[in-house]
Structure formats: C-alpha cells, structure tokens
C-alpha cells in the first residue's frame, strides 16, 4: 500500500472519528491524572487499537433509517465533561462555590485574556468530538445500543454535577447550622492605649509550600528572610470556600468561609450590591476604633465584588486599576489584570506617607499580582534583576513577588513609615494550576502567614489552622482584647485555645460546610427576597346553636 493511499484511508470518516475521540480521551486522562503529556500519543494509539480490534464503525453497520434516527443522548454529558476539564486545567481544582460567587459578584474587568486561546481550543475540540461521536453512534450498532447507558455514566461521574447535586441534597434533606453555632460575633472588648497601625500584604498565590528548597530552590528565599525577624506560622491549610482571592480575603478578615449568596440573592441575574453585609469584619472593627483604612490592588476593584466588599466594610479609600493606571508615568505599562507589582508598591509607599502624616491610626491592605496562575506577571524590575522570563516558569514569578514584597518593606522601614505598625504578610489562597503543579501536590500544602511588629515573638510556630484563624490573630497581634480569643469562626493563634481544625479535622469542617444554611443566611442577611406580609386573619365568626342564643352584643373584652 502506497503512502498516499494510507493517507487517503486516514481521511475516511471512520478513522477521523476514532482519531478525534482518541485524542480527546487521552487529553482528558492527562488533565485528570498525573500521566505526563508525552503519554498522549500512546493513549491515542491504544484507543485506535481497540477500534481496530472491535472493528468499531466498520463491521456493525445499521440500517440507514436507524443510523439517522436520533442524536446521541451523550452529547450534553460529554459537553459538560469538556467544561469540567477546561476548569480543571485552568485552575487545578474546580471550586463550584467560586464559580457561583463570581457569576453573581461580577466577572467583568478580569485578567483572563490569556485563557482566550485555550477556550477557543476547547470549543473547537468539543465540536469535533461531538461530531465524531455522533458519527460513530450512527454507524455502529453496538455503540448505538450502549450509548444511553454511557450517557448516564457520564452524568453520574461528572464532579461538576456531583458537587451541585450533593449540595442540593444536603440543603433539602439536612439543612445545617453547625457552623452558625460556632460563630462568635467579633467584638473588641478593650483597645491598647496607643493602638498600632496595620499593614496587611496579600501575596497572590504565594503559598508557604514554595519554601521547600529541595523542590523549589530559592524562589521563596526573600520571604524566609523576612520571617527570620518575625513570627512565622506553619500549617495554615485551606478549607472549602476559602480557595480564591475574595474568599481568602474574607476568611482572613471576617473569620468565615465565603459561602456564595446563591438563591438568597433576590435578583439572580443582576450583580450583587453588597458583599457579606450581615457580618462585621476587620475593617468594620478598626473603623469603629478611629482607623483610616485604604485598600490598593493592581486589578480592577469591580472584579468579583472586591470594591463592594471594602467600601461596605469600613474602608475610606479603595484604589484599583481604574484609579491608579492614569497616574502611571507610562499608562501602557500594565498586564491583563492591571498594574505590575513594582508600580503598585510605589503607589503603596506614597499612600503610607499620606497616612503617616495624619494623627489617626491607619490600616492599609494591598494585593500583589506577580504570582497569579498560571504563569504569573513578573514586573520589569524583576526582569532587570532576574533576567529573561520564559513566560511559563511560575518559580520565576514567585521569586519576583517575594523580592518585591521584601524591597517594599525595606523602603518603608527606611523612611520610618512602619513605626508602631503590625505587618502581616499572607498568601490569599493556595495557588491554582501552574508549571510547578506536580511538585506542589506531592505533599501537604499550606499558606503563608508572617507577622512583624512590636511585642511579637521572633520564632516559627506550627499550628493546625486555616485562613479563618488569621482574623482574630491580627486583632490580638495589634493588642486588642477579644471575646474568648475568637472572632467569627476563627481562633487567635497567639492564644492556647484550640482552632476548629485542631478540635475536628479538615474533612469534618468541609462536610459541615456542604450542608450549612444558617451561616450562609447570616453572611448575606438583607439580600434574601422580601416576603410579602401575610394579611391579618379575620376574627372567626361566632357560632350559636339557635337564633335565641344570639344577643347582638359584642363579646366582652378581657382586661
């Protein structure tokens, strides 16, 4: 058989269908497992070999009337699996709560431009896969008969639908209030005579796991250097509903996981107007103590309700891309998300000078962007220092983020801007899928938490804790006395009181969260649809046995 005739055979519908299905199936296995990418070719060849062995699409032909009778039942389940694979490859772990929250809080002005190409690839691949599968079902009687069962298997096994079904079943059969019963209203019982300032620095996705030099070299070295003169906590794990930026911020500033509003939001197809309005958070408490509060971030504050959260919880100035980009020397020096971190820290230094010139105590929160998955956004200052960036290596971006944070602190300290200031450095959440993903998931992972300031010990401490414990820890680090060392669901790590995850385990907390409704209602109090007031019932008509019993008088009033 000549080479040209072999190519002609491969262009026939049967072989094209088998190749497309084999490619998509192999790619799915690579995304969902730890099979290396070079395994795609063997997986694809194995599928085609099965097709040859069982003569799929060749020896089991059906009558023409049966072949064109219907569309396969599996088309929708396959498409849903395609969506799940896209989310998995994009983020590493699919968090349905994050999807629901972003749909309601707003997804405009995000930095996902880099995923446009991947989305186009998935759409094209899914179109080819659905066409190929339809051809196979219509031309092979065995596939035709077994395909409805395959559709049920695909639906039942899809984690996307399983998560939705599990949450729905829990809410219907066992609406929970366990977390609500553990919730302690954040209250400052006593404030220090000279309350310190607060600088809270979130380093996007820079988890403490990167501190392992055997796996990640010196990428985390600058944060280790900062930690040598402060209090470093190890063991800050991640529970459900704390694994994306807004959820991490709310967990560490409000002491509770971010449970999306869901059906509590009275207008399902319009953006939220408030974010967790039913609880007091760090900003609310500090504002009541006379603090002037500022938030700075390189990304848009319109994305994911970030501006709504800070503006609704005590912050005086909330600055993001729209406010800061026009102030750049070069307004074109931005990335998909917004400002690079060297620009952001320059603005943060200016804001510290402004705040320090005032008499009132101040608090500032800033959020970096350099470590954002999948590849990071290293600033020009890092390119000048570290050399060329290949556009893929996340460890380059981690090193950049750590160095810029250290450089910012050193500049602020050199100007005397951090006197009587508690500095908190934390990752907002564990990173999503990045180039170092396989190394990251080899063992236990934990978040960054470093505290510097007057009266704080210089040591490393290991505690079984989560980001919800950061809130009361910050309050006690600042010298505030709080009720039972607790705020929200969190417990201060500066105390000996056990955290929820020390008393129970991670899976227990996640199980309680899946069935919880009472805490969700507390978070979003005021956003639930208002119920029409029921009309007052009319007084029952007096019944008499005979007309002679009726007196015509009103009943006597009870005094």
From TrEMBL:
Residues 273-479 form the Sulfatase N-terminal domain. This is Sulfatase-like hydrolase/transferase. Residues 522-559 are annotated as: Disordered. It comes from the Bacteria. Its main location: membrane. It is a multi-pass membrane protein. Keywords: Cell membrane, Hydrolase, Membrane, Transferase, Transmembrane, Transmembrane helix. SUPFAM superfamilies: Alkaline phosphatase-like. The chain crosses the membrane at residues 15-32, 38-58, 70-87, 119-137, 149-165. The lineage of its organism: Bacteria, Pseudomonadati, Pseudomonadota, Gammaproteobacteria, Oceanospirillales. Gene3D superfamilies: Alkaline Phosphatase, subunit A (3.40.720.10).
